[in-house]
Amino acid sequence: MAQILEYALFGAVVAANLCLGLYFSFRKGPPGSGNVSPDTEMFLGSRALRVLPLAASAVASTMSSTGLIAFPAHFYAYGMHIAWGILAHFLYMPLVTHLVVPVIYKLGVTSIFEVSAQNSCILLLER
């Protein structure tokens, strides 16, 4: 009985996600129908995401399942010294937020890997 319930629940979740995707794809019209390219609309949210979805996306892209499982195991095996790593995040995040993010934003790139691909570093240093 439990196996049938699991399959039914899995089917309901898949169907709900499929319906949600179809609704939003038909509601906005075909991709690229406006002045935004289909790639920008699909992968960057037309560069109009608000703070919470953008933060959730950044957290989800930096968090791996291996790290999520390994963190408690590392904490259990080696103890509190991992708190120093957490403390380091609080020290460098204001620096990154005020120094690196404005530069990346002004360059108009999606990720820091695009900076080296576009040779924008050279243009930035010339200004």
Automatic annotation (TrEMBL):
Gene3D superfamilies: Sodium/glucose cotransporter. GO terms for cellular component: plasma membrane. InterPro entries: Na/Glc_symporter_sf, Na/solute_symporter, Sodium:Solute_Symporter_SSF. GO terms for molecular function: symporter activity. It comes from the Eukaryota. The keyword Metal-binding does not apply. Belongs to the sodium:solute symporter (SSF) (TC 2.A.21) family. This is Sodium-dependent multivitamin transporter.
